[in-house]
Amino acid sequence: MTDQGANSTLSAKFTRQKFLKTLGAGAGWLALTNALGCEPTERSPKTAHPTTTSAVHSEPVRVVGSRSTQPQGTWTFRSRPDLSPPVAEVIRQAHDTAPGYIFVAPKEGPGQNGPMIIDNSGQAVWFLPLQSEDDFAMDFKVQYYQGEPVLTWEEGTVEGYSLGEYVILDGSYQEITRLSAANGYGADHHEFVITSDYTAMFTIYSPVSMDLFSVGGPKNGVVADGIIQAVDMGTGEMFFEWHSLDHVALEESYYEPSKDQSEEFDYFHINSIDIDHDSNLLVSARNTSTVYKIDTMSGEVIWRLGGKKSDFEMGPGTRFANQHDARRLSDGTITIFDNGGWNGGEHSRGLVLELDEDEMTVSLVREYPHPYGQIADTQGNMQTLPKGNVFIGWGSEPLFSEFGSNGELLFNARFPPKVESYRAFRFPWKGQPSDDPAMVAERGSDDKLTLYASWNGATEVATWEVLAGPGPERLKPVGSVPRHGFETAITVGSAERYVGVQAKDSSGRVLGTSRSTGPI
Fold this sequence. Notes:
There is one protein chain. Strands 2-26-25-24-23 form a 5-stranded antiparallel sheet, with no helix packed on it. By secondary structure, the protein is mainly beta. Strand 7 (148-158) and strand 8 (162-169) form a beta hairpin. Helices cover 4% and strands 39% of the residues. The radius of gyration is 25 Å and the shape is elongated. The protein has 2 domains: 5-37 and 88-427, 6 Propeller (Neuraminidase), CATH 2.120.10; 51-71 and 432-513, Immunoglobulins (Immunoglobulin-like, Sandwich). The chain is built from 1 helix and 34 strands.
């Protein structure tokens, strides 16, 4: 054990009552955000396509229309050439799914890295390419901050774990703040949780010098300490810090240190934090294949689920390995994304487990196996949704799926090979970008003009109204077309030299207007 035990419990500035109040409120808040449900504005067609060509129906303007095909690998948009996210191919068309959009953060493989929202047809709704090719966005999701829904993720370089910072955006996609870990640590990507009173809890990895001879390593070895911090998001003040090395022995790991210490010994590999109903914490550690219940006051381990030292008798089908994303549900069950692998699992799966904490037994309630029987070596998550549905991101496998409570596959989509998303979620979301709609115009033969219109992140656009005229200040409506997908191509038979578009919602209200283009 290390000498960091003094940091494993509360700072003297915080009382037990205040911290328990924080965690208690956070548990309810997390339960709410994990099961959000309201219908977003979904107007995309069933078949994904990069650009839909529509005709403006308004005499005397002469029009024709055609439909483009879906690209391979990455999207390209004429109105937004700066965006090239990977294509999400829908394999199983959505039916009876929970309301909301899909939240992923593609990395590796073809296309740009960054947080991305898509709809049930695989169409992009919003995408933000990261500035550096070496940075990844991880754990992209909707949370609540100061009473409003926000987008959050961790951004930084990743080598097994991250050294970065947490990003928060509002509904107009403007950055509210960035948050770093306290005490000189780098923020890790595995978990970032905002509680209801504006505190945040997150994971940290920190190298610690240690004698590893007892576990087959060198005497002058280095081990990765798994850390949980809680901080005040307004002041950055840290008031809780827990260290795995103070409470979990190296011998619990199923992994061994490298003999030459070419890399630090990641014996624990913390990958999720959840606030339990009694305000203690549930912590998942991949490399011990164990879920720990942690006393928030003493830092001591209350019990272990799975692994070498399980306090529970594991019933048939309940053993898991290399798991991620352990969550306590309102009915007392626990969900886990079981990566499977060396511990006998033939495929990755989502698990729902029933714990009897009096008899200390575990039984299998339900499982949701990988649609193709494959193993996700790393990453992954399982999200509970309204009506008993579950959404699963398959981590290192480029797949994300939704299941009904009876196990029926309701939706299935995939990225190109080698593309990964650490987690995948479904959330309701309404976005109103602060910038203007984007539009480019291309003049063809016989006075035919094609406009390409898009508005990155706008969820309420129902129609595009075309404006045309002899000058940029003399544009008048000439017709409108339905919005189709991220970018809509509109063919107009007009000789006017200046054009623009307006985005309108389903009631006809103008949401935004592009800059005029011309002369053309």
